[in-house]
Design brief:
Oligomer: heterodimer
Pfam families (chain B): SBP_bac_8
Number of helices of chain B: 18
Number of strands of chain A: 0
Distance between the termini of chain B: 56 Å
Helix content of chain B: 40-55%
Number of strands of chain B: 17
Distance between the termini of chain A: 62 Å
Shape of chain A: flat
Number of helices of chain A: 17
Strand content of chain A: under 5%
Shape of chain B: globular
Membrane topology (chain B): Lipid-anchor
InterPro entries (chain B): Maltose/Cyclodextrin-bd, SBP, SBP_1_CS
Radius of gyration of chain A: 31 Å
Order of helices and strands of chain A: HHHHHHHHHHHHHHHHH
Structural class of chain B: alpha+beta
GO cellular component, one term (chain B): ATP-binding cassette (ABC) transporter complex, substrate-binding subunit-containing
Strand content of chain B: 15-25%
Helix content of chain A: over 70%
GO molecular function, one term (chain B): maltose binding
Amino acid sequence: MSKDQSEKEKRSQTVGNKHNPTFAMVLSILFAGLGQLYNRRYGKGALLIIVETAYLIVFADYMNIGFWGLFTLGEIPMVDHSIFLLIQGLISVILLAFGLTVYIVNIRDAYKEAKEIRGGKKRPTWSEALRHAWDTGFPYIFITPGVVMLMFVTFLPIMFMIALAFTNYNQYNSPPRKLLDWVGFENFINLVRIDIWSDTLFSVLAWTLIWTLVATTLQIALGLFLALLVNDPRIKGKKMIRTILILPWAVPAFVTILIFAAMFNDQFGAINKDILSVFGLSIPWLTDPFYTKIALIMIQTWLGFPFVFALFTGVLQSISKDWYEAAEVDGGNRWQKFRYITLPHILYATAPLLIMQYTGNFNNFNIIYLFNQGGPAVRGQNAGGTDILISWVYKLTFETNNFNMAAAISIIIGFIVIGFAFFQFRRTRSFKEEGNI
Amino acid sequence: MKKALSVFLVFLLLVGVLAGCGPDRDTESNAADDQNTNNSGEEVEKPDKLVVWVNDEEKQKEALEQIFNKYTEETGIEIEMVAVNMLDQIQNLSLDGPAGKGPDVFFQPHDRIGDIVLQGLADPIDLGDVEGDYSKTAISAVTYDGEIYGAPLVVETYGMFYNKDRVSEAPKTFEELQKIADEQTNASNEEYGFLMEAANLYFVWPFFASNGAYIFKRGDDGSYDTNDIGLANEGAKKAGEIVKNWFDQGQIPVGITPDIMNGLFKDGKVSVVINGPWMAREYEEALGESLGISILPEIDGNVGKSFVGVKSWMLSAYSKNKEWAVDFMKFITNKENSLTYFEVAGEMPANEAALTDPLVTDDPIVGPFAEQIQYGEPMPSVPEMQQVWEPANKALELLSNGEDTGVLDEAVEQIKANIIASGGGQ
């Protein structure tokens, strides 16, 4: 080692000892990048300074109006448009969140790096720094466009909807002529306190839950039953049968639903006219809520079972024969083989998808609306006899312009679906932890 | 410690940002002043162009293009035609208007006027001396709160179609119509004397209105009293019984849909149906010479009051060339241009001179509907109307299922509750 080099080493050592992490942190808090400059990471520091300057120049004015709008929702009717301001405000929140994330990362980076320098770490060369940044930053760089897209395409509308639930946005209070106001939880309180809302809410909610549980369970049960049958070694022509059973899935759902709606027509539909008339029956499929519900559940079973069937068939084929042979050796009967080998296998592999079936049906707008527009009518109720929450929300929004109430109900729907999914996924995990597979 | 410090600093930053919030208002108020002086100015400068939103339909666009070109020839103002679906126009206008990208003139059915005015999207217009040129029903339809909001282009209503093979001539009175229903209905054979969408307030309205029912009481100045709902009064109950009777007797099948009705009529199994002119071509193709069209029958001595819909040109509140936009609206709805529109797009003109022109009245298909217009009444244009359809149609559906006319009282209660719940009724 030459004298020159050891000299340099020594100097950096002494510099390192005096290097103050808190000072670096404070510098970075004052302006992103300053701490990095102090740490002598000039490239990084300059980049951060440029980023923050650009951020402030480009967004400061936009966010200024945005936050003002978010709080006031505008002050002068016809000039300020509450909806625009609300959206601008929400975008500002997202921008601020992005900004803060970078800012906090910058502060932590300055502090950490300063600490390392004090600990005697040498300044990396340009190429080292670049390679390090590439190695650690690689996933982040590629995930960023997706996250940004997601923020604006998915997250922003959700925030907008949540925000609307706390405003007084309805037909009579619409921008640009009127300004919106924040009303806190008033919409939610009205939902349970005012009769026309609460009566309807609870009956619709009850049917929604029954619909979800019964229709989905039936479609899963039918799919499972058929999958087991078709998978039986004694069945011949498996491919043919499988193809036929998957057909209902191949026809677009809305076509099937509309055809069923015609077939179930009380007077002219094929079911009453051609099939049930043989037995002297005529069932009011579209005019009695009870029978409409039955018809809907049957149609959904028809529409939904092929997917479950295909799913289960795939899993069944992958179960090793050894399991069953072992069970036979131990004297297990048919039921025991099903209960302890088949069922755990297929449930383990498919549970998340089955849960999706439940949440999917909870919000299955298509079938409810296309079959009978949520009808038939029920005396003394705001929604139709078979309206589920989501189709009721649709009516509130597009037929009666109660945007605030629709948003409030949407939030409730959101919480129910989240709760449902969370509970079920938790159950699934505990299932896995038992480790009986 | 560090965490607390950074949280505190972030908080400080937020407060700083929020404290500086808010737009600079000086320029805005100046702009408003400018506009005021502009409005009071006498000479209005001719704009280079006007932006017009038209309904996104090929035939209509074709007709309007001819008319717009004529206006450009005459005045030198270029017309930019933008096709926006009529149902989307209000929402788009509420977003594009404030942003300065909206049209000067847009096209809407009159029953949305109340809603449009509530949102502050349209300004009233002064039709001046040409006001009398439009059909009275049309002008009454576009009048809201005593002001005219639209230059009517198109009127539409429904009438009666009959099958000449089954009835020699159209029933002139309700009694005759009921007789046809009584005598020619054979439900087991799928033959019906008279069919209509009787669980739809829009079509069944003549039977209600002619018996004395009203939706909202209309004052002499054309304004509606939305607290006075006449859908459960004596006349409405009477009409309700009529509707109920049709279903109870099986003269009109429960759960009837337009598809079923049209299918049966085209198969020649129905004597009389009530429907709009939009079905005329299809019926004619199926029935040929046997198809007859007429006005609605008389109920208690008066021709049934059908609902009339009016589509009109409206002036955007955000237009910067209001005077010329109104001039343009008058031009495209004058007699000559209304007739051009009728010929190309096939929609009935709202201009009285055009509506009574032989070209329209002698048309075997459109003629009877044009005649029906004078007996009709416009649908209420108040925003509260949106809360009426659902409960009213529900009540009719319940009547069709055999419930008593008490459902009409419930419907009125529900309409009132809905109006309050949606923020109106103050």
